[in-house]
Design goal:
single chain; about 600 residues; alpha+beta; Rossmann fold; six-stranded antiparallel sheet; flat
Length: about 600
């Protein structure tokens, strides 16, 4: 392998791209200060070819770069190859392998010109690496023991185990190709032996077939005779087949005729359906015209009345010109009257909306009354519970006092009982003991009497002590129970206050609704009845009505009746009679052709 060109970028100590051309020298010495990048050049070659260097992973990337990239162009066995290996930070590495196209000049002549590269890169990086090693017939371990010595490891090969040295030497000398040749020879021998066995089997089969030649000839004669017989039968069957085909052709013609007749029948059915629909439509149309003709007298009378109304309207219009001034005077009060009517209608609408709201408020008032009663019942219950809590608190105070008294008395009783016991023991053990009061010697009878008196006193104290102890246990349980009950009842004050506040708010809402309902019953409801009555009886705007009546009286005095004019105008504007007349004419004109068409269809 002869290196031609090396490009390093972002690799170890090389941050910026650096290109090294090896074609200008045969022997080189790399010199420089520590850290200048001498070893990095050699590491770049091994990393490009085998993906291994002094550092691994992202450690090979220069601290100020995001990607380490090395491109190595080398000549091997007359071919020019290029390897590109790159490692982006925190990403998977990239490996590409190319060979220069064969039609290019020799490597020595093509150094300065552009090259065309044929990719040898596989789908996976591991397969591409394997192809590089197969091309070089070297792996990394063989390379660093044969062609390239790592820094400080020049004697690495001599330190290998004998088996490893043998394997490395075999790789260096290319002895593994002989193993490949051996395997190919073994496989070739197996293939030839298989072919020989197949040929022997075939020869045996041929010999067996040759030994059966007379039988086969006899069988051939039999088959020939059978063939002739079958040929005669075939001809007979062919004649029958031809007859069947002619019959089948005739049947096909019959089927086509039946299909044509079927299509004609469907067409006729569709035509009949179409005619039935058309007949039904024409009959309905005739019925409609007949209904119009049945109203002929009514329609003609209505049409004549329309003509008279239009003639009368023309007369009223001719005479109305002289009354325009009065008509204009009439528009003012009429507009005011309609405005008053509109105001009253608006007021009715407002009052009815208020009436509807009052109805809802009456229902709300019933709900509020129910809420008040429920709240009062709850408050009564809470007040009862609170009184119960006060009773419990008094019981707790009494029980606590009993507990404190018993707890304070028992230590004193115990000390006094111990003192009495000591005195009794002293009196019982000592003859001629002194009186505890006068300190005079006691007679035996007096000593025994004193001991008995002291024992009675001690027994009374013991009973009191045990009674106090029992009381302490009972009081402790009672106190805990009372405290638990009181603690459970403590939130009732807040709940009672909340209910009282809620009751106050509900009462305020109820009073507010009652005030609104009372205001409606006192003012709104009478006003609604008054306005409705005025609209129904047409008693509103009396002054405007008086003014309008005066103008109408003037118009009647001069022979003009505005109401009659308006009635005639409305009658003349109604086009129903004219439309009916036009429909009657159309029915009269269409009836005879319709009858003829219906007869033709039927």
């Amino acid at each position: 392998m002869i290196p031609h060109n090396l490009i390093i970028s972002g690799f170890l100590s090389y941050r910026d791209p650096v290109e090294i051309d090896f074609t200008g020298f045969d022997l080189a010495c790399i010199a420089g200060a520590n850290g200048a990048g001498k070893s990095s050049i050699l590491d770049a070659i091994t990393w490009a070819l085998f993906g291994q260097a002094r550092q691994r992973g992202d450690a090979i990337i220069n601290a100020q770069s995001d990607t380490a990239e090395v491109v190595l162009v080398f000549e091997y066995e007359g071919n020019l190859y290029r390897v590109l290996r790159a490692k982006p930070r925190n990403k998977t590495g990239i490996l590409e392998f190319h060979i220069a196209q064969k039609h290019q000049p020799a490597p020595e002549a093509a150094e300065s010109g552009p090259r065309e590269w044929k990719p040898l890169t596989e789908r996976a990086g591991r397969k591409t690496q394997k192809r590089i090693e197969e091309t070089l017939r070297l792996d990394y371990e063989t390379f660093i023991n044969a062609a390239f010595f790592l820094q400080g490891k020049a004697d690495q090969f001599t330190q290998q185990r004998p088996g490893d040295r043998k394997r490395i030497l075999a790789s260096i000398l290319g002895l593994e190709i002989w193993e490949t040749y051996r395997q190919r020879a073994v496989q070739r021998r197996k293939d030839v032996e298989s072919e020989i066995r197949a040929a022997d089997i075939r020869l045996s089969e041929i010999a067996a077939e040759l030994s059966e030649a007379p039988q086969r000839q006899k069988r051939l004669d039999e088959l020939t005779a059978e063939l002739e017989r079958l040929e005669q039968a075939r001809k007979s069957q062919a004649q029958m087949l031809e007859n069947i085909r002619r019959v089948a052709a005739s049947l096909d013609e019959q089927r086509k005729l039946i299909a044509a007749l079927t299509r004609q029948l469907e067409t006729d059915r569709e035509r009949v359906n179409e005619l039935e629909l058309r007949l039904e439509s024409r009959q309905m149309e005739r019925k409609k015209h007949a209904q119009i003709l049945a109203r002929q007298t009514e329609i003609l009378e209505a049409y004549e009345a329309l003509q008279r109304a239009r003639a009368e309207l023309a007369r009223w219009d001719e005479s109305a010109s002289q009354f325009r001034e009065h008509e204009q005077k009439r528009q003012g009060p009429l507009t005011r009257l309609e405005a008053a009517r509109a105001r009253l209608l608006q007021e009715v609408e407002t009052l009815r909306a208020r009436e509807s709201a009052i109805s809802e408020q009456r229902a709300d008032l019933r709900d509020l009354q129910s809420q008040i009663e429920n709240a009062r019942a709850k408050i009564t219950g809470l007040q009862s519970e609170i009184e119960k809590r006060k009773t419990l608190e008094a019981q707790l105070a009494e029980a606590s006092e009993d507990f404190a008294n018993a707890r304070a008395e028992n230590p004193r009783l115990k000390a006094e009982m111990e003192e009495l016991k000591a005195r009794i023991d002293q009196l019982s053990e000592t003859e001629g003991a002194a009186c505890p009061l006068c300190e005079q010697p006691l007679a035996p009878d007096d000593r025994l009497a004193l001991i008995a008196a002291l024992e009675i006193q001690g027994k009374a104290m013991g009973n009191k002590y045990r009674a106090n102890k029992s009381l302490l246990e009972q009081s402790k349980s009672l106190v805990n129970d009372l405290k638990s009950q009181i603690e459970r009842l403590k939130p009732l004050d807040d709940e009672l206050l909340a209910l009282q506040n809620e009751l106050g708010q509900v009462k305020a809402q109820k009073e507010h609704l009652e005030a609104r309902i009372d205001d409606w019953e006192r003012e709104g409801e009478p006003r609604l009845a008054e306005v409705v009555r005025a609209l129904e009886e047409e008693t509103f705007a009396s002054e405007t009505r008086a003014e309008l009546n005066a103008i109408d009286a003037e118009l009647q005095a001069i022979g003009y009746d505005a109401a009659a004019h308006d009635a005639v105008r409305r009658a003349a504007a109604d086009t129903t009679a004219e439309d009916d007349y036009r429909a009657l004419e159309s029915a009269q004109a269409a009836l005879e052709p319709l009858d003829a068409e219906i007869d033709s269809i039927q």
